[in-house]
Specification:
The structure holds 2 protein chains of 2 kinds.
Chain A: H1 2-18, H2 20-23, H3 33-50, H4 69-80, H5 86-89, H6 92-102, H7 105-116, E1 122-125, E2 141-144, E3 153-164, E4 171-177, E5 188-194, E6 200-205, E7 214-225, E8 229-230, H8 236-241, H9 244-269, H10 274-304, H11 311-332, H12 336-339, H13 343-355, H14 365-376
Parallel strand pairs in A: 1-4
Antiparallel strand pairs in A: 2-3, 3-7, 4-5, 5-8, 6-7
Helix pairs in contact in A: 1-4, 4-9, 6-7, 9-10, 9-11, 10-11, 11-13, 11-14
Chain B: H1 4-24, H2 30-36, H3 39-45, H4 47-61, H5 67-75, E1 84-86, E2 98-101, E3 104-111, E4 120-127, E5 130-137, E6 142-145, E7 156-163, E8 168-169, H6 174-207, E9 209-210, E10 213-214, H7 219-244, H8 248-277, H9 284-295, H10 301-315
Parallel strand pairs in B: 1-4
Antiparallel strand pairs in B: 2-3, 3-7, 4-5, 5-8, 6-7, 9-10
The chains are: A alpha+beta, B alpha+beta.
Chain lengths: ~375, ~325
C-alpha cells in the first residue's frame, strides 16, 4: 500500500506541477468566499476532467476505485499547494460516503459525479438551535403524506443552523425527526433534499472572521419525495454517524497538511531567535504527533473498514495542533493578526480567527472528552 | 521487525517476568531477569524491537535496570556486558559527556547503577560529529551515588580527568546512532510509565467515593483523564512512526513528545489521585519521580524542542517526515 501510494503521489504531484498555472486561483488573496467557492468548483471540474477526482471512489458512483487514501492524497496535495480552500474541499468526505452507503444506487450514481465534478455543491443539515452537542434532541420534523410505509411524499418543517455553505448548495443531507418527540436517536430519519424546493429559506450567518460560511436554514412545508430517504425510516442516526470515519481520517489528514504548510510559511517569516525557535518547535511537535496519529488511523480504517470512539482522540489532537499553530503565528508575527491590513494580514487574521472554532465544530472538545472517558477509559456513565 | 501481535506477546512476557520478580523481592536485580530473558541476544539480533519491548516493560513496571548501557554500547559497536558501564551525557543534554582539552579528558556527568559494579567505563568524548571513545578502569573515576528525587533509579555522578591514552576514534555517525537508540529506549520507557500512571488514576477514581458517588462520575475528573489518554496515545503514535521510520528526527521528536506527555499525564493524574497520590503508600510518586528523571536523559523536552525549532528556522523548512 505504501508503495502504491508513493507512486500515486509522485504522479499526482508531477501532474499538478505541469498544470500549475491552470489550477492557480485567478484572484489575489485573501479573496471573498464567493471567489473561494468558484475556485473550488473550477478546480474540481479540471481534476474531474483529468480523472484525478474519481480515484478512491467506487466505480458504481462513477469513480475509478482504489483505496480511499488516494482521495486523501489528492486533498492534501491541493492543501499543500494552496490551490483551493482545504476545509471546504474536504467536505466531500463527509457527504459522498453517506450517499454511497445509504442512497438508492441509481440516485448515488446520478448525483455523486455531479458533486465530484464541481457541477454541484451539497451541505449537511444536522445542528439546530436547540440541538448542538445534543444532536439527538433535534426537532425539525418530517411527516409522511399518508402512511409512513407507502407515502410517496414527506413534508418537512423546522430549522437548521451552522449549515456550512447552505446558500451555495444544490442539495442537503438533512436529519429530521420522524419518531415521537422524545424518541432521541431512535426516531431520526435522513433525507437528501434539493435546496431549490419551495419552502426552503437560507439566511447566512456572519462568522467572526467576516465570512458567511454557514447559515440558518428554514423549512416550511417542504415536500420531499420518499425515494430521497437515506437509509431506513428512523435509521437516520446511523446515517449521521457514518460521516465520522472519513471526517476523522481523510479530512484530518488534509487539515494537517494545510497546517504544515502554514507552519512552513511561518518559519519563512519568523525572527531567528530562541523565543521563535521554542514557539515553532512546540507547534511542530504537536503537528508531528497528530500526523503520526492520523496515519495510523487511516491505515486502521483501510484494514478494518471501520473506526470508532478512538477517533475522538484524533479530533482533540487536530484541534489543539491547529490552535497551537495559529497561536505561534500571532506570537511571532508581531501585530500581523491584530493590526496588519495588507492582503497577508487579512489572510492570517481570518485563519487565526477560524482556528478558534477548531475545538467547537465537528463535536466540541468537551463532547470528545466525554466520549473518551466513557467509551475508552471505561469510567462509566457520568449521570 | 516483528509483527504487532508477536510484539504484544513478547512485551507481556517481559512485563510479567519483571513484575513477578519485583513482587517476590522489591529489590530484585532486574538486570538478571533481563539476562535470563535473553535481552542481550535480542538486542544483537533485532535491536529496535528489543529496545521497544524491554524499555516499555521497564516503564510499565517502574523497574530499575542498567539496560540503557547495553543500548549505547551496542550502538557504538561494543559488545554489551555487565562489567562495562557507559558514561551518559550531562543531564538535559546529549553531547558526548567527555571534553577533550589538548591531550586531556575532562568529564563530569552521570551513569546508571552499573557504574557501581562494573570494572570499566566507556567514555565518549569530543564533538558529536567527531567522537572519540576511551575505556577507563573504574579506579580512574570518581563515583558518587546520586540520591536525588528518585534514589531507586540508582544513578551515579561521575567525574574524571586524565590523559587520553588508548582513546580511539569512533565513526562520525556513531554517537548520533547511540543518541537515536537511547532516545528510542527512553521514550518507550516513559510511554510505559505514563500508561501505568493513567491506569492507577482511573482505578482510583472508580473506587474513591465522595458526595455519594465514585469521583469518576464527575466531569472535571473525567476530562483530566481524557486529556491524559490523548497525550499517551499521541506519544504511542510517535513511537510507531519511530519504529517504522527510524531516524534522528523521529527519535528526537518522540523523546520530546515523551517528556511533555510525562508532564501532562503526571499533572492530571496527580490531581485526581489527590491526597493518596501524594503519599508514599501509593505507587504514583515512584512513577512521577522516575519520569522526571528519564525526561532529562539524552535531551530534555525543552532542549530538544529548542534545537528542533532552531533547525526549522535555520533551514526555513518544515519537513513532514511522515507519508501515508
Amino acid at each position: 500500500m505504501a508503495i502504491e501510494l508513493a507512486h500515486y503521489r509522485a504522479e499526482l504531484h508531477a501532474w499538478l506541477d505541469a498544470n500549475h498555472e491552470k489550477l492557480a486561483p485567478p484572484f489575489l488573496p485573501p479573496g471573498t468566499l464567493d471567489n473561494h467557492i468558484a475556485q473550488m468548483q473550477r478546480v474540481k471540474s479540471i481534476l474531474f476532467e483529468a480523472g484525478w477526482m474519481q480515484f478512491g471512489w467506487p466505480e458504481r458512483v462513477g469513480g475509478r476505485g482504489g483505496s480511499p487514501m488516494l482521495r486523501t492524497e489528492l486533498g492534501a496535495a491541493l492543501a499543500e499547494r494552496d490551490i483551493t480552500d482545504a476545509g471546504l474541499f474536504s467536505l466531500i468526505e463527509v457527504l459522498v460516503p453517506t450517499l454511497i452507503e445509504f442512497a438508492a444506487p441509481e440516485l448515488a450514481a446520478e448525483v455523486v459525479p455531479r458533486l465530484l465534478s464541481g457541477t454541484e455543491l451539497w451541505c449537511q443539515g444536522f445542528s439546530e438551535p436547540d440541538a448542538g452537542s445534543d444532536l439527538a434532541s433535534l426537532r425539525c420534523h418530517a411527516v409522511p403524506d399518508g402512511d409512513a410505509r407507502t407515502a410517496s411524499t414527506w413534508v418537512i418543517n423546522g430549522q437548521k443552523v451552522w449549515t456550512s455553505l447552505a446558500q451555495y448548495s444544490d442539495r442537503c443531507v438533512l436529519l429530521t425527526r420522524t419518531g415521537p418527540a422524545d424518541s432521541r436517536h431512535r426516531g431520526v430519519t435522513a433525507f437528501f433534499v434539493d435546496m431549490d424546493t419551495p419552502g426552503i429559506t437560507v439566511r447566512p450567518l456572519e462568522m467572526m472572521n467576516g465570512n458567511l460560511e454557514f447559515a440558518e436554514v428554514f423549512f416550511d412545508d417542504v415536500l420531499v419525495p420518499a425515494d430521497r430517504m437515506l437509509g431506513e425510516l428512523n435509521g437516520g442516526w446511523s446515517v449521521a454517524m457514518s460521516i465520522l470515519p472519513y471526517e476523522r481520517s481523510s479530512c484530518f489528514w488534509q487539515r494537517i497538511a494545510y497546517l504544515y504548510k502554514r507552519l512552513q510559511r511561518l518559519v519563512e517569516l519568523a525572527p531567528h531567535d530562541d523565543r521563535a525557535a521554542e514557539v515553532v518547535g512546540h507547534a511542530y511537535l504537536q503537528l508531528h504527533a497528530v500526523r503520526a496519529r492520523s496515519r495510523a488511523t487511516q491505515h486502521r480504517l483501510a484494514e478494518t473498514g471501520a473506526l470508532g470512539p478512538e477517533t475522538s482522540i484524533d479530533k482533540l489532537l487536530v484541534a489543539t495542533a491547529e490552535q497551537t499553530t495559529y497561536d505561534a503565528v500571532r506570537r511571532l508575527l508581531t501585530g500581523m493578526v491584530e493590526l496588519d491590513d495588507s492582503a497577508a494580514g487579512e489572510v492570517w487574521r481570518s485563519e487565526y480567527l477560524y482556528s478558534r472554532a477548531a475545538t467547537i465544530y465537528g463535536g466540541t472538545a468537551e463532547v470528545q472528552r466525554n466520549i473518551i472517558a466513557r467509551r475508552l477509559l471505561g469510567l462509566g456513565s457520568d449521570e | 521487525m516483528i509483527d504487532p501481535d508477536e510484539r504484544a506477546l513478547m512485551q507481556e512476557t517481559v512485563r510479567s517476568a519483571i513484575a513477578g520478580a519485583l513482587a517476590t523481592d522489591k529489590d530484585a536485580d532486574i538486570d538478571v531477569v533481563l539476562a535470563q530473558l535473553g535481552w542481550r541476544e535480542m538486542l544483537r539480533d533485532e535491536p529496535g524491537d528489543a529496545i521497544d519491548i524491554v524499555f516499555n516493560a521497564l516503564g510499565t513496571t517502574n523497574a530499575s535496570a542498567t539496560a540503557l548501557d547495553d543500548v549505547i554500547l551496542s550502538a557504538l559497536g561494543r559488545e554489551p556486558r555487565a562489567e562495562l558501564a557507559v558514561m551518559l551525557p550531562r543531564f538535559a543534554a546529549w553531547d558526548p559527556p567527555g571534553e577533550i582539552d589538548a591531550e586531556h579528558l575532562h568529564a563530569r556527568s552521570l551513569a546508571t547503577a552499573r557504574a557501581a559494579t562494573a570494572g570499566e567505563m566507556l567514555v565518549v568524548c569530543g564533538r558529536a560529529s567527531e567522537p572519540w571513545m576511551v575505556t577507563l578502569p573504574m579506579t580512574a573515576l570518581e563515583v558518587r551515588k546520586v540520591r536525588g528525587i528518585d534514589p531507586d533509579a540508582g544513578f551515579r555522578a561521575i567525574r574524571t580527568q586524565g590523559n587520553l591514552a588508548g582513546a580511539t576514534r569512533l565513526a562520525p555517525g556513531a554517537w548520533q546512532s547511540a543518541v537515536v537508540l537511547a532516545r528510542r529506549a527512553l521514550a518507550q520507557q516513559i510511554a510505559g510509565a505514563t500508561r501505568s500512571i493513567l491506569d492507577l488514576a482511573c482505578t482510583h477514581t472508580k473506587e474513591r467515593v465522595q458526595f455519594g458517588r465514585p469521583i469518576a462520575r464527575f466531569q472535571a475528573v473525567r476530562h483530566r483523564l481524557a486529556d491524559a489518554l490523548v497525550a499517551v496515545e499521541a506519544l504511542e503514535a510517535t513511537l510507531s512512526v519511530m519504529r517504522e521510520e527510524p531516524s534522528p528526527e523521529t527519535a528526537a521528536l518522540a523523546k520530546a513528545v515523551a517528556g511533555r506527555t510525562a508532564r501532562t499525564v503526571g499533572a492530571h493524574c496527580q490531581q485526581v489521585l489527590a491526597g493518596i497520590g501524594f503519599t508514599t503508600g501509593h505507587p504514583f510518586h515512584r512513577y512521577l519521580k522516575r519520569t522526571l528523571t528519564l525526561e532529562g536523559l539524552f535531551g530534555s523536552s525543552d532542549e530538544i524542542v529548542l534545537d528542533v525549532g532552531r533547525q526549522l528556522l535555520a533551514k526555513r523548512h518544515v519537513p513532514t517526515l511522515i507519508q501515508l
